[in-house]
Amino acid sequence: MNKKVTIYFFFLLISNLAYAGIFDGAGSLINSSLDCWGCNKDAAVMHPHPGTVSTVAFQWLYNKQSCHHIDLQSNYDIEIFVKQKASRKHFTQKAFKVNLIAGEFISLNKVDNNSNWTTLAITSTRSINKDVYISAFCREPQVNFNEGERETISNYLVNVTDNYYWTDTGSLISKANNRIGNGVNKDIAVTFSRYNSLTSFQWYSSLSCQKLHISDYYNNNIKATVSIKPWNLDNSFFKKKCENLPCTINHIGYGYFIIKVVSDAGVIPNGILYAKCEN
Questions:
Q1: Structure pTM?
Q2: Do 78 and 178 have their domain in common?
Q3: Is residue 184 within 8 Å of residue 170, measured between CB atoms?
Q4: 266 within domain boundaries
Q5: What is the mean pLDDT of the chain?
Q6: Taking Cα atoms as reference points, which of 110, 274, 119, 92 lies closest to residue 189?
Q7: CB atoms within 10 A of CB 9
Q8: CATH number at residue 196
Q9: DSSP of 42-77
Q10: Which among 147, 152, 169, 148 is positioned nearest to 160, based on CA atoms?
Q11: What is the Cα–Cα distance from 170 to 213, expressed in whole angstroms?
Q12: Is the pLDDT of residue 160 over 70?
């Protein structure tokens, strides 16, 4: 390896350490025909972490007519990194830096013509000192697309989380009350085989989804930590529920929750987690 290449990779290593965030939560846009949180719009909250940046993630199901692109908005001015990829991909396909101005918006297209499912991670470029609500909304084709003053960055410049490689987020939004398949009463999420992995699910606990069962496809006994918190509270509110899969989380109250699953590299045989509602 020559000197220039060595310096380049050293720079990437330092940059990744500088921008390793804390995972605060996730949102979903999985059914643009319905008007509800988790359907055609959603919000996730970045919380203050002194000396450390914050990350939130979204899952988005593209629809040519009703969710042609999405808009991101914030309740405060904030500079962010945005990383986008197809849901089944491991690595970021597109990344940029942009100022998100309160009351304004920036728009995102899907990044992979072979997949309508997109996941995106949004990381603050510096520590924040107040809760920042990041909202996402489905938009129709004729609605204005705003690029914003974005600056393309290396796909590898930002680690979404520290110690674990964030790969995907899934959704169980039973409030939608529409059995469209994945994203409502069941969903899958990709884990990473080569690095320690962090995968998330958003869960709406309701009468029709009082329990949440998480496993690999074959219900293997796997070492993985499953934690849960209310969607709008900070990272310190994650409470451990299981240290192994399969894991069933019993009813703990109605409303939106964030599930975090962390695992060591390669312990999930096919690299995919399955989550489904149980009563």
A1: 0.90
A2: no
A3: no
A4: yes
A5: 88
A6: 274
A7: 12
A8: 2.60.120
A9: EEEEE--BTTB-EEEEEEEE-BTTTBSEEEEEESS-
A10: 169
A11: 13
A12: no
